[in-house]
């Protein structure tokens, strides 16, 4: 191999490893992110998992999304966790007895038969549903996959654009740092300083039993997360009334909603519904995203704190995610690509993978959760965005690095962006799924069937339950 040429992992090795992770983490109806640290079903994890799983079994990928959406609330929200009642309460915190969704969320339409959390995660779901449908359109049509999920996805988007437009300017707001998915990003440090943390003795941290404390959020941050979640629960998970203590317009959440609105327009066409409202909403959201969150001085989209209506001056990877927006103005897309390859994110230069936070930021930490490490879902989205906006050679470089690091890290939850060294837990489901998707896209492997269990075989035969 010539010097400087990216090393490509042997496709069979990556394929075998990714299959093993996805098989081992399958519960019968969905996939856990990891067996120890995350023993339930997570919202955006399942969307990313389904995107990779479609290459092994499109029906099982459909089941993944159907299971998640079966726990949707009456107001349209898709909760960020769907709890498995067979898992002991002390295996994860906050557990079902903290969220109390079926009681505290009853007025908002929380399901009575399953316990969930009361907050949400980024809306990747319509995009995932469309990609899963495309993997096997005949089976999808026979099972009525899109026809059944379209109304649920439309209700989900209505919830976000109506109940969560807390700023009144057309963008979705998040009310907890866990909602944008980048849990303890330095972007949240300033808004979180307003929050009085829950007392240390009032909650327990199960996460520290499965990972190094240096890789996880601090106790102070966790106390603030607990306080915000408890306050939201105690107000019945309502989004009206007095403004919440934490309210932020996040570019990643809104970019994913725009991409999913474009996907929902295609889904609408496939099921005989009108696509025009979804395309119009995508345009309105794109205009609001540029107007509210674009910062020309940094060449990046920034988060906006709604409590004082100001941009938060921290460079997080969420600010690069608008690259996935099809209607993004070309000049802004070009500027974002320059920012991604510049010193703050180092893509194609200092960093092997896009970090979750500014390499030059005062709060950068290559090991601690979303404060610097590289995550595979972020890099999958950036790779997709680079291709969308004409930067295929750079996307090829990123894809090669992601494939190599996925294998060498043991499909780690996240990695050091400079070295690719594994951080967090291993055998992480979305890492395996998205590496598989990148591998297939590169031509390194085709779809390969898996010997599924009897239950999934019944789904493949055409059942809908």
UniProtKB/TrEMBL annotation:
Question: Which of UniProt's keywords are assigned here?
Answer: Glycosidase, Hydrolase
Q: What is one Gene Ontology biological process annotated in the Swiss-Prot or TrEMBL record?
A: oligosaccharide metabolic process
- Cited Pfam families: MGH1-like_GH
Q: Name one GO molecular function term.
A: Glc3Man9GlcNAc2 oligosaccharide glucosidase activity
Keyword set includes Membrane: no
Instruction: List residues of the Mannosylglycerate hydrolase MGH1-like glycoside hydrolase domain.
Output: 38-431
User: Which portions of this protein are annotated as coiled-coil regions?
Assistant: none
Does Hydrolase count among this protein's keywords?
yes
The record's annotation in PANTHER family points to:
MANNOSYL-OLIGOSACCHARIDE GLUCOSIDASE (PTHR10412:SF11)
Assigned protein family? Belongs to the glycosyl hydrolase 63 family.
| Name of this chain's protein | Mannosylglycerate hydrolase MGH1-like glycoside hydrolase domain-containing protein
Q: Which organism is it from?
A: Streptomyces sparsogenes DSM 40356
């Amino acid at each position: 191999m010539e010097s400087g040429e990216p090393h490509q992992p042997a496709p069979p090795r990556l394929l075998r490893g990714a299959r093993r992770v996805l098989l081992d983490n399958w519960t019968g109806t969905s996939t856990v992110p990891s067996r120890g640290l995350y023993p339930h079903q997570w919202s955006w994890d399942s969307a990313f998992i389904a995107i990779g799983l479609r290459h092994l079994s499109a029906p099982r990928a459909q089941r993944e999304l159907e299971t998640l959406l079966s726990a949707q609330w009456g107001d349209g929200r898709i909760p960020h966790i769907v709890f498995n009642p067979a898992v002991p309460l002390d295996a994860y915190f906050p557990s079902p007895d903290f969220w109390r969704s079926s009681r505290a969320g009853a007025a908002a339409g929380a399901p009575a038969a399953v316990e969930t959390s009361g907050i949400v995660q980024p809306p990747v779901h319509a995009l995932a549903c469309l990609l899963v449908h495309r993997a096997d359109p005949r089976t999808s049509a026979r099972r009525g996959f899109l026809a059944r999920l379209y109304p649920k996805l439309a209700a989900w988007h209505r919830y976000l654009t109506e109940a969560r437009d807390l700023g009144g300017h057309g963008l979705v707001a998040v009310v907890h740092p866990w909602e944008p998915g980048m849990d303890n990003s330095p972007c949240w440090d300033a808004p979180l300083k307003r929050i009085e943390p829950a007392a240390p003795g009032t909650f327990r941290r199960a996460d520290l039993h499965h990972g190094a404390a240096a890789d996880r959020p601090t106790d102070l941050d966790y106390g603030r997360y607990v306080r915000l979640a408890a306050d939201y629960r105690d107000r019945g998970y309502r989004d009206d009334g007095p403004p919440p203590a934490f309210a932020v317009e996040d570019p990643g959440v809104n970019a994913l909603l725009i991409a999913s609105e474009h996907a929902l327009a295609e889904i609408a066409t496939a099921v005989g519904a009108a696509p025009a409202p979804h395309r119009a909403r995508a345009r309105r959201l794109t205009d609001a995203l540029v107007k509210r969150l674009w910062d020309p001085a940094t060449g990046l989209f920034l988060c906006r704190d709604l409590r004082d209506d100001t941009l938060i001056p921290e460079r997080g990877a969420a600010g690069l995610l608008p690259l996935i927006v099809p209607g993004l103005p070309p000049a802004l897309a070009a500027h974002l690509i320059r920012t991604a390859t510049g010193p703050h994110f180092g893509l194609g230069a200092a960093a092997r993978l896009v970090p979750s936070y500014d390499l030059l930021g005062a709060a950068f930490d290559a090991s601690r959760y979303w404060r610097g490490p590289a995550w595979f879902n972020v890099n999958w989205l950036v790779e997709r965005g680079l291709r969308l906006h004409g930067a295929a050679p750079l996307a090829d470089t990123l894809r090669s690095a992601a494939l190599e690091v996925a294998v060498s890290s043991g499909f780690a939850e996240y990695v050091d962006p400079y070295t690719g060294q594994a951080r967090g837990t291993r055998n992480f489901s979305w890492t395996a799924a998205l590496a598989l998707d990148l591998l297939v896209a590169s031509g390194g492997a085709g779809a390969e069937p898996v010997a599924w269990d009897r239950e999934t075989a019944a789904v493949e035969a055409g059942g809908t339950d």
